[in-house]
Amino acid sequence: MGFRPRQEPARPGEVHRPEDHLDRALVTRPFIGITTWRRFIDTDLGSGRPAHSLGTEYAAPVEAAGGAVVLLPPTAGVDEVLDRLDGLVLSGGEDVHPSRYGAAPQEGKNYDPSRDGYELALARGARERGLPVLAICRGLQVSNVAFGGSLIVDIPTTADHQPVRGADQQLAARHPITLAEGSRLAALYGTRNRVVNTIHHQSIDVTAPGLHPVAWAPDGIVEAVEADDDWPFWAVQWHPEKMIAPDEAAEEMPLFAAFVSAARERAAEHPAAEKGTR
Question: Is residue 148 in some structural domain?
Answer without folding.
Answer: yes
